[in-house]
Design a protein that fits this description.
The chain is an all-alpha fold. The chain has one domain. Helices cover 80% and strands 0% of the residues. α7 packs parallel to α9. It starts with a helix and ends with a helix.
Amino acid sequence: MTSAAFGISSIVAATLIWGFSPLYYAAMSHIPPFEVVVHRILWSLPPIVIYALWTGRGPRFIEAGRDRRKLAAMALSTAAISVNWVAFIYAIQIGETAQASFGYYIYPLAVLLIGVIVFREGITALQWIAAAIAGFGVLWIGWRLGEMPWLALLVMATFALYGTVRKAAQISPMIGVLWELLLVTPVLLAYLVWIGGGRFFVDFSDALWLIGGSLFTGIPLIMFVESAKRLRFSTVGVLFYINPTLQFVSAIILGEPFSADRLIGFGLIWVAVALYCVELIRQDRGTRSKSGG
């Protein structure tokens, strides 16, 4: 598998996991969102540490921690993704899954601009057309909703910041995620002590649900960072539309309203994604033909 193909498969897998995660977190709507995030992070840490040690990443982990600039970057990315998770789960618990997913719809457009401005990525005419169509679809949904909800903006801004910092920092996916989880662990443990353990020690069923939330954390996050490292940032942004689309599907399953206006917005965005993917395939064929493959 080529580097680009692995990157695409990684972002698709991550968005599939995240896209259906509202169905899982909705079952924990009686637990405070920050408490859910605390366990989501803490229970994802042991298997990642074990895997990192088993694959011989210990020296690279220590080396990354000695680089103050990388450590500062990981602290910033940790703060960004933590706020993103809390906002997302809070939106699900108050019945605003659609609003949270709308924030993820705005995110790829921000990423497209970041890719061009920050990372100097070139965009073809067809890709600009695709971005314009997607932007119109997003504006349509926002206009028909009647406002730009603050939760959507918060979700978009924090995830865009996370992806930008991680791509710019040039830290391997596994090492970066491991440091992010470790940096925030003392704060999370202090919070659990402060609340006396929360629901984890009150209800056995809740404890199992809280542990299971870790499946939506470390693994897809590593997949996402891996794709951002291997693909152009703008490509990651467009393929990321799979995530909010599946979140809207999850919102429908959870009983949230889905109007014809949103269906129109969906249609426009998927046309844009199709155009962008067609251009990616054309570029890939052109690259292989030039290289003799």
